[in-house]
Amino acid sequence: MPVIESVEAHDIRFPTSSTLDGSDAMNKDGDYSAAYIVVRTDDPGLSGYGFTFTIGRGNDLVTAAALQWAVRLIGRDVRTVAGDPGALYREFQSDSQMRWLGPEKGVVHIALAAVMNAVWDLAAREAGKPLWRLLTDMTPEQLVDAADLRYLSDALTRDEALAILRDQEPTRAARVAELEARGGYPCYTTSAGWLGYSDDKLRRLLQEAVDSGYRHVKLKVGANLEEDRRRLRIAREVVGWDAKLMIDANQVWDVPEAVEWVNALAEFKPHWIEEPTSPDDVLGHAAVRRAVAPIGVATGEHGMNRVLFKQLLQAEAIDYLQLDSARLASVNEIIAVYLLAAKFGVPVCPHAGGVGLCELVQHLSVFDYVAVSASLEDRVTEYVDHLHEHFTDPCIVEHGNYVLPSRPGYSAQMHDASVAEFAYPDGEYWARR
Amino acid sequence: MPVIESVEAHDIRFPTSSTLDGSDAMNKDGDYSAAYIVVRTDDPGLSGYGFTFTIGRGNDLVTAAALQWAVRLIGRDVRTVAGDPGALYREFQSDSQMRWLGPEKGVVHIALAAVMNAVWDLAAREAGKPLWRLLTDMTPEQLVDAADLRYLSDALTRDEALAILRDQEPTRAARVAELEARGGYPCYTTSAGWLGYSDDKLRRLLQEAVDSGYRHVKLKVGANLEEDRRRLRIAREVVGWDAKLMIDANQVWDVPEAVEWVNALAEFKPHWIEEPTSPDDVLGHAAVRRAVAPIGVATGEHGMNRVLFKQLLQAEAIDYLQLDSARLASVNEIIAVYLLAAKFGVPVCPHAGGVGLCELVQHLSVFDYVAVSASLEDRVTEYVDHLHEHFTDPCIVEHGNYVLPSRPGYSAQMHDASVAEFAYPDGEYWARR
After folding, report:
1. Number of domains present in the structure of chain A
2. Complex prediction ipTM
3. Which entry of A351, A363, A386, A390 is annotated as an active-site residue?
């Protein structure tokens, strides 16, 4: 039986600010980064890889925090850890000294995400399955035991969670077959719409998106209303009026400003407005939603934890729930959010992009369709064509779909050469600068 | 004109877990800790001191984060920094790479609190005034410029904030005189009520509190209902039925459990239930409040930022707002929360205890009474008799009142000997262990 022998934590930063990839109204110059965790066992063929995503400065803090969680894995039996990730998760979350630093939010929480992502990757590799398959082979009881349901019982009881999963259990295999037949899980692209791009580049990238089969595209807005109008006009010229056009303000507005600005763009018929205001503002999102309908409201990439999502659902504040695979504390918390969303009938359209988020969310979306929501209606998962070359099992997107991953694990492993080159500050790239 | 020449960040930990000081249902073994920042100028007589509070592990992460903010102060002119702390605060908050790690919550946010606390201490020392005096000598415009009003305008506009402050401006001096005449600002004590204490110790400490003039005492609850009943019965025997008896669950319950448990203790007529559930759960607190009235609901020591407090007020979720001086990002964010509370007519009863929080909140409560709320009704500030000996200007509590601080600054400076002894892990105390 393999035993966890050592762990590593790497501060990896990619110099994306130099090309304005990822530029938006709030985040003008991010260097896409990962706090990257490797869990090694005494079996040379079995390791776990996980990470969380940041945009540069402070990634060292997250890496240090993740290492503090990760060292506690050393000496543990892989089967025990992999057999009950819920027990491990609860043990980590019950460290009251670390909890004080959140609780369950910010640096310690995303650091826990990195570590638990590595644990889930390890569990899937040990089982010889891609993560989505590991999850969809678990019983409803096993899934609910793994899920973090603390603080949720006023909205979702354990019995309700079990009932949702049991309803879909008999037909799981049919939905796996259906996804494989249709070519994968539907996605949309944000690659075209960063604020820093010129009109020509915007037009060219949108055309490429349409030509590649995308029926949803997304543009960043919120820095300048007249420029937003010009760029949305270009977008509609290129993609037409049948495609869904989403807009994303990345939290730059107060609530009244959000309402005014979004309504000023209504003529372009946005499918949703994403992150209109502070990600913490449940009541603010509810107010925006009431005021901009029929434009939908979407948020979640900065949704700090399941308690925030519970409230967004209770307050009828969102039309689309955009959980983040590296900000929520891994699969344990994500299962709970999917179950909440199913209970409230709100589609989950996960946030992705960054570094490696696409690699993770492809597994989660398949899990949702197969085991939880059993619906593709209004569901589309983000895809951004950046930085996949650094992963050993990069996601494959064809004709606007994530092709189902087939290799064991959570697709979270980076190439050793990428780690060596972009480790901060001593990797080859940063040492050269 | 003095210039900031160097900064220091110290990880200070006090071994409070050995005596169960500070034990509650969630936090059983905290080592009260401070991420302590010193800002030195080229004037040997002028430095600024600030900190944030944690309970042990991870304090190194906060210290490291605080240092990343603090080094940006080096080379700046003290008058410029002290003359417009709002500009500095906004500059720090607009670092989008650091912002990603919250935003505005968790490790980076409390680290910013430590640094801005040092900046406000420096500003008060440079002016030769205690912080409360510095603030109550500022014009309404200056206070509003210093305040962080971002994301609040749906609940509090800049004009409304100005109007609140202008209403109270002409009578500020009278309220300062009144506080001095009455012996200070009213406080209550939690020193008696930690969960780990024996019944005899509980009884003795409660009697001491009553004998010292306290009319409010607080007990920790939530680990065991029968023990809670026994301890509350003892408390009522000692303090009688005229004193206010508060109870504090430190977030251990889900919402339905909170309602049930608190109502099961209703016979002891608690004044408030503090932290009944997750600190992030605005709607949960509102539900608890509706279900346990007339028992009041209080929360805020883990209130992550002003957006959370805005919603607690909008949702009518709380009867008492317990902001924390080291979790909110210093005076800039705290002014905003006081103004919100005044707008909604909810009394602010700051959280204190820990390390040095009493030293800070005494200034804030005086500011509130003199410049913002102009009311003492239902207002009482926490006091815990721990660890004050480590501060050069410790708070003075007499007859249940915080005596108004008179020395320049924010009372945040620790003795050099305390820093040397309790620095972690290399200070004398920890090196011995």
Report:
1. 2
2. 0.97
3. A351
